[in-house]
Amino acid sequence: MTTFLDALEPDQGARLLERSVRRRFRAGTVIAHEHDEPGSVLIVLTGEVVASTAGPGGREVLLGIAGAGELVGELAAVRGSPRSATLSARTDVEAAAVTGADFRTFLATTPGAALHLLDTVVERLVVADAQRRELATLDVVARVASRLLELAGPEPAGGELRLTHDELAAWTGASREAVTKALAVLRTLGAVRTHRGRIELRDPAVLARRAAV
After folding, report:
1. Nearest by Cα to 179 from 189, 166, 160
2. Per the CATH hierarchy, to which homologous superfamily does domain 4-126 belong?
3. pTM for the complete prediction?
């Protein structure tokens, strides 16, 4: 998927960044809390920002991860409504912060920018719908396999993901214990190998078959 910043013409992206203030966050920092005032739109320049919410019983539910070129906090800023998710720095992050007023002005005066934003929102809705279907129809092993493939990219060919059991639990709507058991099953199938804070994809084809169960 093309990021919002990449979808803009070079001069448009430059104009947007001219309106911004650079901000840096260390890994693990909470950037904004769910239900906070809308605040600024962040354009991620380097690193990754996690959006999460509190699910039933207070369990963290991971909604998405934004990387370089992607926006976070844009819907709250455009609508002037409280933030719908907590934003945290998954890694060290450098971002460009644009006030809500400046971002709305940019959308109103830049041809195509609003359409690019709509594309971003639609893509997130598609992902959210897919996640709801998974929760309703797939067991935890299948959900874990599906999420690993998603995080590995469109053409997974093995490799390694920097991902903890807690993050994977939040991402799949399961408990940490259930995720640990699911990974044990996938290890037995030869699909993955797990290390502390890392998951090595050994056989994406096996993951794909298990994800389809």
Report:
1. 166
2. Jelly Rolls (2.60.120.10)
3. 0.77
